[in-house]
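Q: Fold this one first, please.
A: Sequence and structure below.
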Amino acid sequence: MLVPLYEAVYERLDVGSGTRLLGLGCGSGLALLMAAARGAAVTGVDTGAPEKLALARERLLPDGGRGTRARADARIVEGAPGDARQPGQPAFGLVTALEPIGCLAGDSEDLGGLLAEAAPLAERGAPVVLAGWGPPERCATTSVLRVATRLADPLRSAGSWRPALRDDLEEVAHRAGLRPDGSGRVACPFGYADTDSAVRGLLSTGLFDQAVAATDRSQVDKELTEALHPYRRGDGTVWMPNVFRYLIARTP
């Protein structure tokens, strides 16, 4: 769903064979794979789900079983940004945090800590890219994500959905000691083959975990199905236009 965002960022920053990229929260490694396809040397770091990191390794590492897609200069690190440090190697020329913030309570604070730890690993003045959800009125998925907050009550704990704010990315950058230096918006529609696929896809984001904990999976499935009804087309597919935002900041 976020491929247009990755492409726009890499095109704007001219990512290519001379780029040493550190990807924070790399997940399953799709953004890294796209950068590697442009010739970049990529390092991904994440503390997330082991199965996602396993997929990232399969996609990128020489023993991953994907033949020509594997790159000898790709690394996947399970841990904190500081664990990606390579003594004797040049500093990173680009740091990315392309998992969008602005929809989970506490996500901006978490990202700020990661960026502060990653900044010393980058060259002076290197670009650091942050991504976030666009204005709620420009994101059809917003109305669906509200289901997560409503069902998670009265928990209202970290992990529940919240609407994106206009200056989310700038505030995170400032707290991490970074200097904002440009931004952009990218259309990233969410499309699914049918309603069941849409429900599974949305649940896989983790945005509904608190709702499931507060109620049960069948209740969340039911409410999601109802919320998706306005976006179901005549052929059964589900289509939700969204806009995502990215900010380019610079290290000190």
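Q: Good. Now the second chain.
A: Here it is, same layout.
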Amino acid sequence: MLGLDEIQWGLLLLVVVAGFAAGWIDAIVGGGGLIQLPVLLLIPGLSPVQALATNKLGSIFGTTTSAITYYRRVKPDLRTAIPAAVFAFLGSFGGAVVASSIPAEYFRPIIVVALIGVFVFTVAKPSLGEIERERKGHRRHLITAILIGLLIGAYDGVMGPGTGSFLVIALVGLLGFTFLQGSAIAKIINVFTNLGALAFFIPLGAVRWELAIALGIANCLGGYLGARMAIAKGSGFVRALFLIVVCVLIVILGWTVVSDWMSAN
């Protein structure tokens, strides 16, 4: 196993920069894994499972920092966040078990189609997430929140990129929160999806701790600044950046699907 002193300084700097950028984007709309995970896969000798596990540990520093920042300034609805987060933990643990045995390329085409649907839905509803909608029954609201946590948590355990974006659009589109409130609640849930995956990966010995700590420090700074910017700019800014991140996710994951299909034929 390579130590930090054996990794090229240029590559280590790239990991730290990617960690900061990922923390910043994740804090606002999610999608930071799109930056962080591919950079980790450049590290010589790091397997895909090790990259995924190290990414989770590094990310949890940033998501925790941004969740605390949002909590202090936005006061997210904990009656929604906590039940969703508990089931997100369970879903993510199950997803991590699946990730250790099933190649990610099996899931990518489904994710690309889902992202296109999210983009079209958001563009078609310009007023979506501007004001908070009235709740339609506490029980229905709670069940929907639990299902969001469980399903998106499972996805995060399997793959990860775009988890925050899926959480935000589900909280805005299905539960009626504003984009700012949705981002705040998504960060709390995201902490638990990372914890769920790590509950499987750490005993497996898949985490590269020296890389994860360097990544985590950069993630913390990016997460704090991203959350502060989202709070200062409001839901309109969050929505605009959300659409940009979803577009980038569609292009990159779509290209990966096409490349996988071409190499298989």
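Q: Anything worth noting on the second one?
A: The chain has a mean pLDDT of 85.
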